[in-house]
Design a protein that fits this description.
It catalyses: Exonucleolytic cleavage in the 3'- to 5'-direction to yield nucleoside 5'-phosphates. The chain has 17 helices and 34 strands. By secondary structure, it is an alpha+beta fold. The protein has 6 domains: 56 residues, Arc Repressor Mutant, subunit A; 64 residues, Nucleic acid-binding proteins (OB fold (Dihydrolipoamide Acetyltransferase, E2P)), CATH 2.40.50.140; 67 residues, OB fold (Dihydrolipoamide Acetyltransferase, E2P), CATH 2.40.50; 314 residues, no CATH class; 53 residues, no CATH class; 94 residues, Nucleic acid-binding proteins (OB fold (Dihydrolipoamide Acetyltransferase, E2P), Beta Barrel), CATH 2.40.50.140. The longest helix has 31 residues. It starts with 8 loop residues before the first helix and ends with a helix.
């Protein structure tokens, strides 16, 4: 193959001048078609040019030493005698060019020493800079309802945690109509009445329109939901991967098991009895995962966009995918009877459920069936349908036999065994909530979870064996303060949580077992969940507390999680399976990538939670005035939160609406205590409430307290149902418990 000639210094300089935004060595090498040893020569040439001063190196990029990149960081200088504002580039050696700062009304106030990100344009005597944002201060964006006024208007935020309005000056309304949903950003200092100014940057339409709920969350949380043209073009240009050097696994009868409404199928499994006499009663478990790395290569537009999104975000009515549908729904989806490229792991499982060996391979499979959880469960229980009947003996039965072995090992390992039902919001064709129900937890769900956990463990252990960098899924043990709070809740409920020893998930499982079947079952499960730290990604291995595992990585969902794609690339590089493995830049930015995708995961969780709240509020808005039972799930100074039994929705009882007395807030005990009656409102208490208000646009539910632990409030309360004797007795008992606990604590100190 003919090697392209090394460019001259003049050619490099000309290219850098024409492409100021792309000055990395790999960009230059790609532009001139350089590979292999030619890239080494290019590196030497660039170093020589930097030493001569003809190019300037800033971080990992080279630029024309006489030119600044179009977007750069500037330091603001003191105004000159005429009051004009000037700046200098932060990363610059030698005499800095003149940069005049052009300010607009909506720009933040700037003073000498401030740093800004600015867009530059060359003029005769230097540069002009327009402010993008002040460094460390992102422009605050809001999604809200526009209310037209005589001079502009106002925006009422839809975020239920943000009650202040924003002023929109005339000329900044983008011709929005009254009552329209809009996205806006802060545009300068506060205006009259101390309200912040905003300018509308996008009109989102009617907030009451069907399916507007998830659209609100997407915009409010800044989730990218529109793929750039170049990303779509790359995805559309891809073709199915061929067998090539892959291991041919198409003769193995893999199946996929997914929800009925699955939008992608990125994992398949197959189990057969182990015929090795040394592993009598054991199993061979295969887990195959879509080979996304073959299509999403490091440095590509697809890769940049996938990393930017971090993960897919799932709403009841739509998905914001990490990858375009050409990949997520087609080339990377393990459809039945279609050859698909995979990374697969073959695991040898002992009779008692221990993984005693594993082997990874880059292969090709052909799934024999795409099945649903309930369909597989029914077949296992003796009610197969036409599709599953031929699969029961040879495919489904071995899967359940392997799961039974893994369940025995799980019982010994004792990962955290929370029992929190998963809520499902069903949306009809008109985009409105048809029903709210709780999903059944079947063994078919549990076995796939166990198979995936084991494959994730194998991936982490394999990369450790290969001494390759990777992203771990980290879940640290809870803090001492949170465990102490959980212990107090347990004691108040009549249970015990071991103290004075290293905390293990087994201790928490004993507590959950004590509460199982009691009236405090849900309370203890929720309180235990709240005591946990949030899982995150990191290149350092700090273990996974909740799963009780030493090494754990995400390997099984590369269609919807960027973390898994990084693990796939690490395996490809570690085994030498191709040139699409973990790149040098991937390795150098591993810490940054871990932090970024941990943040995008939290962003998606918040958006999904807000959307659920809004759909539930819309669903319940026709039932204002109806009565519901529930349990107090949280207490704050301003009121108590209640989780309703019927839907699992959370509503607020404002403390201002409870009786006519002052309530003291005990943060440690998580209680509100009436100053006159001694009424105690605390976590876990059963309540009867009336729905006073449901606001779909914010997701807020306001409740009116009718009964507490089966008794009406002092003075008859709102409901006036039963005498208050029981409630007073309960309050006195709780107050006595609280006083005793404090006395014991003081004695111990």
């Amino acid at each position: 193959m003919t090697q392209n000639p090394i460019p001259t210094k003049e050619q490099i300089l000309a290219w850098l001048s024409d492409h100021p935004e792309a000055g990395a060595k790999r960009d230059i090498a790609k532009a001139f078609g350089l590979k292999g040893t030619a890239k080494i020569e290019l590196k030497r040439l660039l170093k020589e040019m930097a030493a001569e001063g003809t190019v300037a190196r800033r971080r990992r990029s080279y630029h024309d030493s006489g030119a600044l990149p179009p977007v750069t960081v500037l330091e603001i200088l003191a105004p000159d005698a005429q009051g004009d504002l000037w700046a200098r580039p932060v990363e610059w050696e030698g005499e800095a060019p003149q940069i005049a700062v052009l300010t607009r009304r909506e720009d933040p106030a700037l003073g000498a020493g401030d740093r800004v990100l600015a867009r530059l344009s060359q003029v005769t005597e230097g540069y002009e800079a327009r402010i993008i944002r002040k460094i460390g201060v992102a422009r605050h964006r809001i999604v809200g309802i526009f209310r037209k006024g005589a001079e502009g208007g106002r925006i009422t935020p839809i975020d239920k945690g943000d009650m202040k309005e924003w002023i929109v000056p005339a000329g900044a309304t983008a011709e929005a109509k009254d009552g329209e949903l809009v996205e806006a950003e802060q545009s300068g200092p506060k205006g009259r009445m101390g309200l912040p100014r905003a300018r509308i940057i996008e009109r989102l339409g009617d907030p009451a329109a069907p399916r507007a709920v998830s659209l609100i969350a997407i915009h409010q949380h800044g989730i990218p939901d529109d793929f750039p043209d170049e990303v779509i073009a790359e995805a559309d240009a891809e073709r199915p991967a061929g067998l090539g050097d892959r291991e041919d696994l198409t003769d193995l009868p893999f199946i996929t098991i997914d929800p009925a409404d699955a939008r992608d199928r990125d994992d398949a499994c197959f189990v057969q009895p182990d015929d090795d006499a040394a592993n009598a009663g054991g199993h061979i478990l295969w887990v195959a995962i879509a080979d996304v790395a073959h299509y999403v290569r490091p440095g590509s537009a697809l890769d940049r966009e996938a990393r930017n999104r971090g993960n897919s975000t799932y709403f009841p009515d739509r998905v914001v995918p990490m990858l375009p549908d050409r990949l997520s729904g087609d080339l990377c989806s393990l459809h039945e009877h279609v050859p698909r490229a995979v990374l697969a792991v073959r695991m040898k499982i002992s009779e008692d459920g221990r993984k005693i060996a594993h082997r990874f391979t880059r292969g090709m499979i052909r799934s024999v069936a795409s099945l649903e959880y309930a369909q597989v469960q029914a077949a296992h229980e003796g009610q197969p349908d036409a599709k599953t009947a031929p699969l029961v003996a040879e495919i489904i039965a071995p899967i359940y036999a392997c799961y039974a072995a893994l369940a025995r090992a799980r019982a010994i390992r004792q990962p955290l065994d929370l029992d929190l039902p998963e809520r499902q919001i069903v949306i009809n064709e008109a985009g409105k909530v048809a029903s709210v129900k709780f999903k059944d937890r079947l063994d078919a769900h549990r076995l796939i979870e166990e198979f995936m956990v084991l494959a994730n463990v194998a991936a982490a252990e394999e990369l450790e064996r290969l001494h390759r960098p990777l992203l771990y899924r980290v879940h640290e043990e809870p803090s001492a303060d949170k465990i102490e709070s959980l212990r107090e809740v347990a004691q108040a409920s009549g249970f015990t949580l071991a103290k004075g020893q290293v905390l293990k998930t087994a201790h928490l499982n004993r507590l959950l077992s004590q509460a199982e079947g009691s009236e405090f079952d849900e309370l203890i499960n929720i309180s235990t969940l709240r005591s946990m730290t949030q899982a995150y990604y990191a290149p350092q291995n700090l273990g996974h507390f909740g799963l009780a595992l030493r090494s754990y990585a995400h390997f099984t969902s590369p269609i919807r999680r960027y973390s898994d794609l990084i693990v796939h690339r690490a395996l490809i590089a570690g085994h030498g399976w191709g040139k699409d493995g973990l790149s040098r830049e991937d390795v150098e930015t591993l810490e940054e990538t871990a932090q970024h995708i941990s943040e995008t995961e939290r962003r998606s969780m918040a958006a999904e939670r807000d959307t659920t709240d809004r759909y539930l509020a819309a669903y319940l808005s026709d039932r204002v005035g109806a009565e519901f039972t529930g349990r107090i799930s949280g207490v704050q100074k301003f009121g108590a939160f209640v989780k309703l039994d019927e839907t699992g929705a959370d509503g607020l009882i404002p403390i201002r609406a409870v009786g006519r007395e002052f309530f003291h807030y005990d943060r440690d005990a998580q209680q509100l205590i009436g100053a006159d009656t001694g009424l105690v409102i605390g976590i876990g208490q059963r309540v009867l409430v009336r729905l006073a208000e449901a606001i779909p646009v914010t997701g807020g539910l306001e409740l009116e307290l009718l009964e507490l632990e089966g008794a009406s409030l002092p003075g008859g309360g709102k409901g006036g149902r039963k005498p208050f004797k029981l409630a007073r007795k309960f309050s006195a008992l709780k107050a006595k418990q609280r006083a005793t606990a404090r006395k014991v604590k003081r004695t111990r100190k």
